[in-house]
Sequence to fold (261 residues):
Amino acid sequence: MRQIISLLLALPLLAATIHNGETFMVPFNHKVRSKLPHTTIGHIALFPIGYYHRKGRKVIEVDGKKVVLRILPKRYKREQLRVAPSKVKPPAKVKRRIEAEYREAQKIYGTVTGRNYIHKPFILPIKSSVTSPFGTARLFNGSLKSYHSGTDFRAPVGTPVRAINDGRVVLAKRRYYAGGSVIIDHGRGLYSCYYHLSKFKVKKGDRVRRGEVIALSGKSGRVTGPHLHLTIKLLGKSVDPLQFIERFNTLWNSSLTPRSP
Ligand SMILES: [Zn+2]
Fold:
């Protein structure tokens, strides 16, 4: 009987779908193998699917069973933004600063800390409504610049911003585009990033606990008004923070997922 139940539970896994910009997650007991880049947190294997990775088929082996993962394109919205011209076409003198900040961030996201800080589900950094979801194609002053690499929450200047899980602060400084920024390393290639802050409550190197106030929200950097921007980086890719948190917490709270040691 137990075998039948576990077979039935495993069946929907044999074929799975995921959208570009989302994180495919699957619980496992012993081992996960795939050519698709992935990491593990406890007994959950996580596969970040890049925003520009719009279709494909990948095979994942979970405890010896093959799962065929189909990647499908998601229909993200487009939005027009009007900002100070200097933030679209930055003046030459700040180019060096922007490049240095970009390199610094890439170096952080490219680092996979072997240690795992995550031993509980995630929370949101702020209790508020979403003003701009992840993935929206962005036209700044009429020209397509990028896609929205995180989730924006409504937040008047000075709103307390909380760490979404345990980790270590690896960056706390003011940057040109992101303004006041905090980046937390959660281990295993997972980072959470909080932008446009007005005041820091932590510094680089600090250990932080889930729910701890790390900063106050603001309107610094390239913004049209005060809000909190949250990015989740996994193995160097920006993924939809809300999809990540919802899926992770569902699996974490599920009795089917073995507890991590
Ligand atoms: Zn944003």
About this structure: The radius of gyration is 19 Å.
